[in-house]
Specification:
Elements lengths: L3 E5 L2 E5 L4 E4 L13 E4 L6 H4 L6 E2 L2 E2 L17 H6 L2 E6 L6 E5 L11 E4 L11 E6 L5 E2 L5 E2 L3 E2 L17 E5 L3 E6 L13 E5 L12 E6 L8 E6 L3 E2 L3 E2 L3 E6 L5 E5 L4 E5 L4
Parallel strand pairs: 8-11
Antiparallel strand pairs: 1-2, 2-3, 3-4, 5-6, 6-7, 7-8, 9-10, 10-14, 12-13, 15-16, 16-17, 17-18, 19-20, 21-22, 22-23
Length: 278
């Protein structure tokens, strides 16, 4: 079940739920890639959210994000430690060295380099809480609260286990309940106007059990010159009709070499190109 790719030094890396596979000299062997070499497999095998994982490259390391299994209909004594292991951004070298957690309990699906991560909050509290969020990862092993605390200020009614939200790193920005942020990218291109430079683009996959769906769009997050006062606005929409009618569900974003933006839609099976002209 291949779900995401990265390309570095002539090699193609493919993430497939619980393993990272390397294909050497990929461009010269597109019709005969072979089986590849598994370079990292210390990941839980959990297909339900594993199919939303993708690797990001930074220097010679890979940062696969792992999604937890629990949707919180389970009893409080269900293996919280195992759930936390499924809630990490991982760091591993391209040669396959052992992993370390760049961030814990972020409930991330995809990570952008090692600086930020969108987080999907738990289900079954209500239509309007808790909020999904955007985190900034600033140190190894940083903890963002899951499953004890949500949206930076909301202890879990069942799983808080005596923890206080003040123990964990608060979010940069709450994005809204059940919008399901997946892929994110910093806009580093030059095709769009200057005000878009270094802003964050987030693909919101959209709700699955909210009575009135939210998400199914691309939002843009900006901050002030001092890195504070984050705010979001809608960059692209139109994939949601009525209360529960999906025309598409954005899943990931990459930048093309010309500065245009490519959006993967795993509902319609399409890739959209968003470009700018005066």
């Amino acid at each position: 079940m291949p779900t995401g790719i990265a390309f570095r030094d002539g090699a193609l890396y493919v993430i497939a739920v619980d393993k990272l596979i390397k294909y050497e000299n990929a461009e010269a062997n597109l019709d005969k890639l072979g089986d590849g070499k598994v370079v990292y497999d210390d990941m839980p095998s959990y297909a339900a959210h594993g199919w939303n994982i993708s690797p990001s490259t930074r220097m010679a390391r890979f940062l696969p994000a792992v999604r937890p299994a629990l949707q919180h209909r389970d009893s409080a004594d269900q293996r919280l430690a195992d759930s936390a292991r499924r809630s990490e951004n991982r760091q591993c070298r391209s040669g396959g060295a052992r992993r370390s957690a760049t961030a814990s309990a972020v409930t991330s699906i995809r990570a952008a380099a090692n600086t930020g991560s969108p987080e999907n909050a738990r289900d079954w509290m209500s239509d309007d809480i808790p909020s999904d969020k955007l985190n900034m990862v600033s140190k190894l092993g940083e903890h963002f609260g899951y499953p004890y605390c949500h949206q930076g200020n909301l202890p879990d009614p069942k799983f808080a286990m005596g923890h206080k939200c003040s123990e964990f790193t608060p979010p940069v920005l709450n994005l809204g309940a059940h919008v399901a942020p997946l892929g994110m990218k910093f806009y580093t291109g030059s095709q769009f106007p200057a005000e878009y430079k270094n802003s964050i683009l987030i693909a919101e996959h959209g709700s699955w059990n909210r009575h009135k769906y939210q998400g199914a769009r691309i939002v843009r997050v900006t901050v002030g010159p001092d890195g504070k006062n984050p705010k979001q606005d809608v960059f692209a929409s139109g994939w949601l009709e009525g209360d529960q009618g999906y025309l598409g569900r954005p899943a990931d974003i990459i930048l093309d070499k010309d500065g245009s933006i490519l959006v993967a839609d795993d509902w319609a099976g399409a890739i959209y190109r968003i470009s700018y002209k005066k």
